[in-house]
Amino acid sequence: MVFPNKYLKFKNSLLNLGSIIIKNMKKNFWYTVDEIWRDLKVEESVRQYTFNDLILTFDFLFSINSISINSEGKVCLN
Asked: What is the pLDDT of residues 25-56, one digit of tens each?
């Protein structure tokens, strides 16, 4: 579900959600996961995703070193 393939369109993949998250975050600014989720849920293109999808996307973005997580649990772009 992370990557699009012939059965899963890009707009339904977690890779798309990751690009939306990165687009909405500002560099060198720390966000809580709840703040990001609240800001994303107002967008029409994100309403299909669940909170679990958001967490999986954060795991993916962290694994490719796109985001950092501090000791307070806040998220920042690298």
From this structure: 988 899 999 999 999 999 888 988 999 999 99
Residue 36 falls inside a structural domain: yes
Containing domain of residue 71, as a range?
A: 18-77
In the three-class reduction of DSSP (H, G, I as helix; E, B as strand; rest coil), residue 73 is classed as coil
Cβ atoms of 69 and 62 within 8 Å: the answer is yes
CB-based contact 58:18 (threshold 8 Å): no
**Domain harbouring 52, CATH code:** 1.10.10
Residue whose pair of structure tokens reads 């997580």 in the numeric block = 69
Question: In whole angstroms, what is the distance from residue 75 CA to residue 62 CA?
Answer: 10
Q: Which amino acid, one-letter code, is at 57?
A: T
